Amino acid sequence: MQSRYWFWMLLSAPVILILLGWHMAIMHLEGLLGHMVSISAQPLAWEDVMARGRNVFVVTSYVLLLGAGLFHGFFGLRTILMEYWPGKAAEKVISRSCLVAGIILFSVGTYTTLTFHFFLPAP
Amino acid sequence: MNKEAARLGVYGWLRSGKRGIEGYLFLLHRITGIALLAFLCMHVFVSLTRLFGEQAWAWAMAMTHSVLIELLEYAVFVAFIFHAFNGIRLIAIELGFVVGRPAEPVFPYKGSITKQRPLTITIMVVAGVLILMGGLELLRLT
Amino acid sequence: MPLMEFVIQRFNRETDSEPRWERYQVTTHLGMTVLEALHQIQEQQDASLAWRYSCRMGICGSCAMIINGKPGLACNTQVHDLNAPIVHVQPLSNFSVVKDLVPDLTPMFEKHSSLKTYLVRQDASKTEALEGELAQSPDELMRYLQFSHCTKCGACMAACPTVAIDSAFLGPMPLAAAHRYNVDSRDEGFEARKQKVSALHGAFSCHYAAECSSVCPKGVDPARAIQLMKRDLILDLLKLRQKSAPASLAPSPSAAKPSDDIPQAPEFTVKT
Q: Most distant CA pair in chain A: distance in Å?
């Protein structure tokens, strides 16, 4: 079973690399990349946030990024914690806590992203 | 038997000294991974403020914009670049691509560590360049 | 002859509550090893000093210990090569201490045995009693020969950062041994070992810090073995692992006809 989880770890890595790399570029690297591609100078301004929230491509990417990122992060955290606290009981607690925390954060994040997309009134 | 095994523990990682590059990269990969996860958890909640309208969003943006926060954001960027590129290196190594074929050992031993060094150095240089470029952006020198 | 100071970790559970350091002055000579220094200390200064050794030539793996912070064999480490006026000697990390420089290696050997580190044949009866030699080509031999040089000294276990925190982790030596048998063309035990090796605290708890390979005194490169094993496990998960036919019995030498110019062997003098 661990082979399977570890394989998903490997798969989620390039997904995060591409989507998070793009997200970082949009948010922070306007100065460097603005000469080559059109990037908003004020990505955190309300209008820009709303514009991205209406874009299906952006919203889908965010949900994918959140899912992949949370899986990758919490599986990594689970690995580290299980190495530090081996033993059947500790392993159950750690696995379940990481799963619950991941699901809660994914739900909150997806709700934020999709609600914004689906319920924002058109201008 | 002495029941307390002389297991070095996490403190031992820091005290060990005399590591090769790969040992330090292993430690940094763990530290940056935990830092990025902590950042992600916090980020989900900051982004959530936009559900409460423009004013709530403006408040959240005001709270999260200061020199210290910008430096911390740069730290997140550095952590991401390191973790991503070291991760690419680890994927190559852990799938057995750059560790070399088994060969009869002849002293001085040249094994997988020697075989994967060029990749490690290349990846660290690329990551270093990207980190510097991010630094230029931070200092608004672009 | 230059004098060097040896600072050695001592522990006697009958008298000590925790380890302590003791200092000794040792008269060194060119080519002297740490093992010889320990003998000199025991013979001339402190007969109670305890450590393991056997072959004194780097083939048995008994004298593994931490010398100036790095795991290695005492018989293979020349004192002048350390380039330090003071030599710190401690027992291997991550193991309980029996006495002084003697670690309790039992957990490592138990993990090793749990991985069926012997040739396993599909036909269980054949595992114990093969009818003859199994054929193997030089290329097939090279796939595992490097990993068979392991002397089970435990230096890799002392160096590994995962072993340092995780008492359940199998460790570089057992995992490399499992891989040595997995890729041996005469072995059919991959499925039998797979479960344990791919479980929690198995091969996937290795994150290539490569400290094991850097300290191995025999050049076994356990880190290489473990990464190759992880590749095999992932290929097996994706059902892409190539399964080669198991090694067949090599033709018996008695079936071959000797050349005409080779004289006959003399009769046995002992008649059975």
A: 56
Measure the CA–CA gap between A19 and A32, rounded to whole angstroms. Answer: 18
Nearest to A80 by CA among B45, B73, B38: B38
Strands C97-99 and C102-103 turn out to be: antiparallel
pLDDT at B71 over 50: yes
d(CA C174, CA A29): 48
Q: Rounded CA gap, A52 and A67, in Å?
A: 19
The nearest alpha carbon in chain A to B64 belongs to A44
Contact (Cβ atoms closer than 8 angstroms) between residue A93 and residue C202: no
- Asked whether residue C68 carries a pLDDT value surpassing 70, the answer given is yes
What count of CB pairs under 8 Å joins A to B?
A: 74
End-to-end alpha-carbon separation of chain B, Å?
A: 64
Report the Cα A85 to chain-centroid distance in Å: 27
CB contact set of C251 (below 8 Å; sequence gap of 6+) = none
Domains of chain B with CATH codes: 9-138 (1.20.1300.10)
Nearest to B112 among C93, C94, C213 (CB): C213
Q: Which of C95, C210, C231 sits opposite B5 (nearest CB)?
A: C95
CATH class (in words) of the domain with range C106-237? mainly alpha
Predicted pLDDT at B2: 35
**pLDDT tens per residue, range C29-65:** 999 999 999 999 999 999 999 999 999 999 999 999 9
B5's tokens:
């095994």
Chain C interface includes B55 (CB < 8 A): no
Q: Is the pLDDT of residue B3 over 60?
A: no
Determine whether the interchain pair C219/B2 forms a contact, defined as Cβ–Cβ distance below 8 Å. Answer: no
Model ipTM?
0.87
The confidence score (pLDDT) of residue A119 equals 61
The matching CATH number, chosen from 3.40.710.10, 3.65.10.10, 3.10.20.30, 1.10.287.180, for C3-103 is 3.10.20.30
* Parallel/antiparallel/unpaired status of strands C3-10 and C86-90: parallel
Pairing of β C70-73 and β C64-67: antiparallel
Q: Is the CB of residue B92 less than 8 Å away from at least one CB of chain C?
A: no
Phi, psi of B86 (to 5 degrees): -65, -35
pLDDT tops 80 at residue C121: yes
Q: What distance in Å separates the CA atoms of residue B30 and residue B22, rounded to the nearest whole number?
A: 13
Query: What single-letter amino acid sits at A82?
Result: M
Which domain does A18 fall in, by range?
A: 2-119
Which of B2, B26, B111 is closest, CB to CB, to C161? B26
Token couple for C88: 């710190």
Tell me the CA distances in angstroms from C96 to B75, C18, C22, C67, one per residue in order: 40, 12, 19, 17
